[in-house]
Amino acid sequence: xxxxxxxxxxxxxxxxxxxxxxxxxxxxxxxxxxxxxxxxxxxxxxxxxxxxxxxxxxxxxxxxxxxxxxxxxxxxxxxxxxxxxxxx
Length: 88
What we know:
Elements: H1 12-16, E1 21-25, H2 29-46, E2 51-55, H3 73-81
Parallel strand pairs: 1-2
């Protein structure tokens, strides 16, 4: 994985253009909306790019036809114990 990309974090690209980076938890929909509004207001006020780093996961893997428990059983045991965002 280290040689698969030129930097450790996806947001490192934003550092090159000196854009502000806002990290937000995808399990908190209200926070996601607040961050989106904040980024929009920043963009409108300063005419500069903003990067939102939405930290989340696909609950059932890359494809609905795949069973991700075969490839990563420990992670999906933890995910199955978490309540879905709709139920939070």
